[in-house]
Amino acid sequence: MTTLARRLGLADAVVIGLGAMLGAGVFVVWGPAARAAGSATGLMIALLLAATVAACNATSSGRLAARYPESGGTYVYGRERLGPFAGYLAGWGFVVGKTASCAAMALTIGSYLWPQQERLVAVLAVVVMTAVNLRGITKTAGATKALVVVTLGVLSLVVVLGLSSSGTPKALPETTATPLAAAGLLFFAFAGYARIATLGEEVTDPHRTIPRAVPIALGIVLVVYVVVALTCLEVLGVTRLGSSSAPLAEVVSAAGFPELSTVVRIGAGVAVCGVLLSLVAGVGRTVLAMARRADLPRPLAAVHEHWKTPWIAELTVATIVIAVVLAADIRAAIGFSSLTVLVYYAITNLAAWTLGGPWVPRLVAGAGLLGCVLLAVTLPLSSVLAGTAVLAAGAIAYALKPRHRRQ
């Protein structure tokens, strides 16, 4: 079996985690989460709840990645600790949910950069990001660093302009607060730290690097999210924020700087490219791991001799993403993606629980498991039903496989 090359240090791993998380929350999820929360207080409580569950998951992911430093993330951990079906279900949920997320991110890029031709721009973004990934993980890390800088620059501009506004948001009625439902949606914004674990086969000294990189990336993102959320609420208010499709551009306009909203749109579109870049990389590695064990077609496990990347897996993922982009607008599928990812992390925590060891990590794993279940069942009913149907379809496909392949 051809393995991937270990080329990522601590800084590279942290940056990939930042690139996966920054953008998903800041540019996509605030509107749906604000509508679900119903109030400013509810939104902030939801953000802290989502961050707490994410921190528990991050701790469990770090422990498992140090024990099993190979591509695939929880697909591998579930197989090793809980059995083949648990690993398969985690991998299936991750691949399907994150493929939908890739399409959502691509369409977001199009809606920011060229709303009149969002599908065309989305397809081009998928092609370009896939081409970067195919050239090797160091190219992915280098491009992600540049995109993270752009992201932080855009967010800093929005915060400075927003807080310099002398006006206050127009008083609009708030609805009943439901922080749990909003927390399930906001969890979508933190899920990118899994990208560090799924790239475990390409990280140098993974036993030390991964457990350090995951909490560092998560902590930085939480601080950024809190600052941006408070700025959006201060300028727009929760009701207007909940109805906005481009909240950061609207913050700048409402703050009295409409001429800079175009700059924010361009910066946001470029920044979300970082999310798409790391998403394609993470899904491709999980497909690679599943193909190695015949849970997906074997040819998908091919590794390019020169670039050391799972090139057939990444091209396949890109093709499916483009098909989804052309077929439908799925930016409203954040809840669906959140459900499949919460199931993924529930399996992560259950696997971490079986590692034993000190009581504190086991307590964290137990809290993470309960948190994932709680957030999953409080998602919008349509998201729960859609996600459950997809997971059930995967389980049926697994059951129909010959017994020797299931093992």
Features:
Amino acid/polyamine transporter I, mainly alpha, 407 residues, 17 helices
Tell me about this structure:
The protein has 407 residues and is mainly alpha-helical. The chain contains 17 helices and no strands. The chain is globular. It starts with 9 loop residues before the first helix and ends with a helix.
Order of helices and strands: HHHHHHHHHHHHHHHHH
Q: What would the average pLDDT be, to the nearest integer? A: 84
Radius of gyration: 20 Å
Structural class of the secondary structure composition? mainly alpha
The total count of helices amounts to 17
Counted beta strands: 0
Distance between the termini: 19 Å
CATH homologous superfamily label: Amino acid/polyamine transporter I
Q: Low-confidence parts, pLDDT < 50 over ≥5 residues?
A: none
User: Which descriptor suits the 3D outline?
Assistant: globular
Say what the CATH topology is: Amino acid/polyamine transporter I
Bin the strand percentage.
Answer: under 5%
Q: Short description, anyone?
A:
By secondary structure, this protein is an all-alpha fold. Helices cover 76% and strands 0% of the residues.
Task: Present the secondary structure layout.
Layout: H1 10-21, H2 24-37, H3 40-67, H4 74-82, H5 84-113, H6 118-134, H7 137-163, H8 179-190, H9 194-198, H10 206-242, H11 247-254, H12 261-292, H13 311-327, H14 334-353, H15 359-377, H16 381-400, H17 403-406
